[in-house]
Amino acid sequence: MTPDHYAPERTALLFVDPYNDFLSEGGKVWPRIRGVAEQVGLLDNLRAIVAAVRAAGIRVFIVPHRRWEPGDLESWQRATPYQRMAARAQTFAKGSWGGEWHPDFAPKTGDIVVKEHWGSSGFANTDLDALLKQHDIARVIVIGLIANTCIECTGRFASELGYHVTLVKDATAAASDEAMRAAHEINGPTFAHAIVTTQELVTALSAP
Amino acid sequence: MTPDHYAPERTALLFVDPYNDFLSEGGKVWPRIRGVAEQVGLLDNLRAIVAAVRAAGIRVFIVPHRRWEPGDLESWQRATPYQRMAARAQTFAKGSWGGEWHPDFAPKTGDIVVKEHWGSSGFANTDLDALLKQHDIARVIVIGLIANTCIECTGRFASELGYHVTLVKDATAAASDEAMRAAHEINGPTFAHAIVTTQELVTALSAP
Amino acid sequence: MTPDHYAPERTALLFVDPYNDFLSEGGKVWPRIRGVAEQVGLLDNLRAIVAAVRAAGIRVFIVPHRRWEPGDLESWQRATPYQRMAARAQTFAKGSWGGEWHPDFAPKTGDIVVKEHWGSSGFANTDLDALLKQHDIARVIVIGLIANTCIECTGRFASELGYHVTLVKDATAAASDEAMRAAHEINGPTFAHAIVTTQELVTALSAP
Amino acid sequence: MTPDHYAPERTALLFVDPYNDFLSEGGKVWPRIRGVAEQVGLLDNLRAIVAAVRAAGIRVFIVPHRRWEPGDLESWQRATPYQRMAARAQTFAKGSWGGEWHPDFAPKTGDIVVKEHWGSSGFANTDLDALLKQHDIARVIVIGLIANTCIECTGRFASELGYHVTLVKDATAAASDEAMRAAHEINGPTFAHAIVTTQELVTALSAP
């Protein structure tokens, strides 16, 4: 699957979870994804895409996970084991350094910060779909973390909702090579419209 | 339509927009609804329902409208005229007194504060539906403001989503008697399961 | 509120419930709306809009209510009183004349027939939103029946979802003048972008 | 993750796509999943679960994919490559044997047949969520096909919507062992509440 034309006024970059806990040395989840992240050159690729996207006039949507707060999930009947684990670790805790934006990826003027999501999909229980419509978006490029959870789930929802979905296989990471392969070789082709490398995407965005 | 049994562990009170701008002397929207509010005894009725609901062990969900912030709607392609008017008035502005909870209705421990909605429905673009499921809720009692906008629209969405919906015709207000009549006599019966007075509701909630 | 430009490739006509039971002499619901329908010239206006829309190259989406079938709602815990009444009357019964399209408004090649809705909103529990996205639609013109139930509720959902919404006040009907006034004078202006007459709409669609 | 108590009046079996094209010798997709299906004992396991579920008084929801019809997707702007491939193959074609229910799994009286879905999630663009609410369902057991597409995507949506999700790793199949592993070892644990074998599930359902 190759990328084709990305009309800037109809395309959005969805940058999922650019938190220190995910992307910075010392972050709570960084150790879990560091191996894959360094192997694919994650940070440099994220920087390259954000620069290319801004140069092309494509709008950036920040799609953040819930920042943990005291009391979270306590009265919930059916939080998932995975959610309970993240709550125990106080991942992305509100007011903590880990819950702040990685300094290279903090929102700039004109970026849209979507409501925080509780699970894996940036669309579920948030205003992402309506905000995309209000900005006339038909295509989404989904980058950030983690390849087989939030990126895949946000991509699956986007596809079901009628958006064109591009995954970038070296602008995300996961806990293992196998999880990366599950995201991009096994599952991605069943719902995405394009699965590309950062280099391919940057080239497509720079095309006249 | 009469209320019947409200099992506490399956019922939620949805209190929409308990802001000073709506409910307090000096609030930006108060002058527009004051006539009807005083006529139905709105503040006393809201206090009576909240007290009865808490006594019955029914959980309170606060369902707040977007607190205006600088930049809101500026890049939107299709904000409604009504939304643009509210943005110009900076209704419920973040950090302002008008955007604070009315002191009698601020959330208490155990209450759930839902994500802010951009339009009229407390369900649209928020986590209300998922949070109701996580608390095993099958019935919603919808009170607050305004009868023919946020209350009606939240009730309509609830009904479409499969919840049992109770409207309380003197625990809300609107700009005119005619708008109240539209909400409770003309439209309410087409989607709600019960339309009651505060007195009828309090009696039903106090039944053994 | 006046209509402005309707780009054909971004606009859809949502024609709600063009069934014989609603629109034809002998239909089950026709007697309830006949007074208003004849007063506003409903049938002629619907014909004029459909013709103008097709001439302009705007796509028609048929948005149908559930055709009643034996067993409907029987196991539901929380059908609304209004739904139960319609089920008892077997409105739009599958296989019956009343559940067939009015002959002037049957789908033509290229029209999209959306999934049937159970309540009042053509968006709730159907594929309408995804189908609009798949056809690049940003604006919806909502006509058909009934002004203060399915038309209003479909319009409210469209607005919350981020679409531009046009109501046509003489291309719908209701049980009373008061219900028409509730739909177009009291509630419509709080969520719609344009509320027009058939004549105004046809003129706007014919503009170069 | 182990199953615990499944209260019959709060639990649903979601049986996804019990079509001949998937489950019968001669079906269009059967050759693609046959290897895994025979290895896990798919057909026998599906029969055992359906029998145990019915014996326990748990309601069956049939969650069917769109039966292909002429014209499908032709006017869509952004069908996925995967959807286009299925349309070219006319999978589950309406009126064909392949689009009929496998004879062992046809709906029985009291079963609920949900609206057909266009993509992978049984919730997207259908009435599944509302129908589950109308039947007071809090837990879903998701079986059928394919493990890493419709089953996973329906499970992910269910989890985001607030349901308790059980996957059954030998009551589904996929094109490869690797895809099964992606579904149950890599992705499932990030959103599901229980991942069990047929034997474990049947035992749990038979417990007093």
Helix content of chain A: 25-40%
Helix and strand composition category of chain A: alpha/beta
Kindly, what is the distance between the CA atoms of the first and last residues of chain A, rounded to a whole number of angstroms?
Answer: 21 Å
Of all chain pairs, the largest interface belongs to: A-D, 38 and 38 residues
Multimeric state: homotetramer
Low-confidence stretches of chain A: none
What's the β-strand tally of chain A? 6
CATH topology of chain A: Rossmann fold
Q: Strand fraction band of chain A?
A: 15-25%
Instruction: Specify the CATH class of chain A.
Output: Alpha Beta
Radius of gyration of chain A: 16 Å
Order of helices and strands of chain A: EHHHEHEHEHEHEH
Spatially, the strands of the biggest sheet of chain A line up as 3-2-1-4-5-6
Overall spatial form of chain A: globular
Assigned CATH architecture of chain A: 3-Layer(aba) Sandwich
Q: Write down the domain tally of chain A.
A: 1
Q: Mind telling me the CATH superfamily name of chain A?
A: Isochorismatase-like
What does this protein look like?
Four copies of one chain form a homotetramer. Chain A is 38% helix and 16% strand. With 208 residues, chain A is of the alpha/beta class. The longest helix of chain A has 15 residues, at 42-56. The mean pLDDT of chain A is 96. Chains in contact: A-B, A-C, A-D, B-C, B-D, C-D. The interface between A and D is large, with 38 and 38 residues.
List key phrases describing it:
homotetramer; about 210 residues; alpha/beta; Rossmann fold; 6-stranded parallel beta sheet; about 15% strand; globular; hydrolase activity (chains A, B, C, D); Isochorismatase-like_dom (chains A, B, C, D); Isochorismatase-like_sf (chains A, B, C, D); hydrolase (chains A, B, C, D); Isochorismatase-like_hydrls (chains A, B, C, D)
